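Tokens help. One example:
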Amino acid sequence: MRHVHGAWTLAIAIAVTFVTAGTAQAWHAHAVVLCDTNENRQIDSADPSIEDVTVRIENLGGTFSESGPTDAQGDAWFELPDTPDDYAMDLDPATLPSDATVVVPAGGTAFFSTTDSNYEIEREYLVDSEICRGPEEPGLCWLTGGGVKFESMLDMDMATHGPKDSMGGVVAPGCSLDPSAGGQWNHIAHHLKIHFQGTDIDTVRCFNTPGTEPGSESPVTPVNTLEAEGTGWIQGIQGNKLERTDVYFMAHYEDRNEPGSNGANDGDDIDRYYLHVFTDPTNPVTSTVFVIDMDGNPATIDPVLITGGNMQMHKCEE
């Protein structure tokens, strides 16, 4: 679902099905252009769409070309010739912000082929630009959390023996990245028999997750979400012989209720958590070690609902 906010639209890319009733199938291409709000170089539900970006498409034989602007939802559609062919689709840089870089797909051009079994083509584009960030959120924050257990793929506690995963630590203690290298975060992936530790946190963002009531309650903070990035290591546990390996990580924490998941009446009030551990910062999705996410897809951020413990936001002193 997309929620319109002025010229911007919060976008979750949704596959579009084309049906031509009573006639043979026709080939179509659909482009979705999004803005990288949180600078994580991944498409997620907080990324707004961009209107009036010109999408260009041509076949590699040079006999067909077409272009058109994205609409208010960041979408552009094209009808293609009715014979299988190879195509390239990209964005016209003259219609993007001057500082913009297309980060998805890598290189900015999507290549695809139409075949007798592939009539509907959809490609997503993620653009990085200062215009994507908009005005800064009021205030900074830091976070503590721990003792958490959850079912990563379900919205409920399945009464398993012991936690499926557990985690805890501190991020940007006292709103500084200097002490303890920005904090420390541990995640025990019991189901994978892996211990992850984030030892150096070098980036922190504080903001309000779209669709939630701004701020947190106790202590009162102007924001309810913190995202952190950095480096650390993983190591096998419980019989897993994986040797200690250096990794990168990105974590997302939402403080939606006090205390945490206890006493919450519905899913909207339960604290949420996302963790992506990977080995190559230039290709985080393809180098994924593991991801804690509702659908297990590291290309999007869909935090899990925790079933125990607490995410605790703290306000920085003015």
